[in-house]
Amino acid sequence: xxxxxxxxxxxxxxxxxxxxxxxxxxxxxxxxxxxxxxxxxxxxxxxxxxxxxxxxxxxxxxxxxxxxxxxxxxxxxxxxxxxxxxxxxxxxxxxxxxxxxxxxxxxxxxxxxxxxxxxxxxxxxxxxxxxxxxxxxxxxxxxxxxxxxxxxxxxxxxxxxxxxxxxxxxxxxxxxx
Length: 177
Fold this sequence. Notes:
Layout (H helix, E strand, L loop, with lengths): L6 E4 L2 E5 L2 E5 L8 E4 L2 H21 L20 H15 L9 H12 L4 H8 L4 H8 L5 H14 L5 H13 L1
Antiparallel strand pairs: 1-4, 2-3
C-alpha cells in the first residue's frame, strides 16, 4: 500500500482452507493490480495505520508481520466470520441498512462507479476481471444511461439540440447541402 501515492496494490488473495489461512496467487494475471484510492479512503487508512502501530507495540514479540492491511490485533489475518458477525453486521444495523453479504460491497462499488459514468475498462481493472466482457455481463443493467450519453454526444457533434422537430429540419438541411 502506498498511502503517499494514494494506491493499493493487490498481490494475493487470502484463502481459508480447513481453518488455516494462507495468501495465494490471484486466479488471473489481472488479479494482480494497482488501485487508485479516493482521498477519504487514504485518510481512513492513515488513521487505521496509526491504530495498527499501537496494536503492534502492545503485542510486542507476539506480533506476526504478514504485511496485511487489516490484520487482527497480533498481525494475523482477520477471521472472516468474526469480521462479518462482530463488525460488519452491527455496522450495517447502526447505519440503518438491510443485511447484505460482505462481497456485496464490491458489487455496490462497481455499480456506483458505472452509474457515475466511469469507463467500464477502468472498473474492470479495479475489480481484477480478466476482461471487460465479465464486467459487462455482470453489470450491464446499470449502464442504460450510456445509450442516452451516446445519443447526446452525437447531438453535440452535429450541433443538434433543443426541439426534436427543429433538429429533424436541421438534419435534413445538412443532408441536402
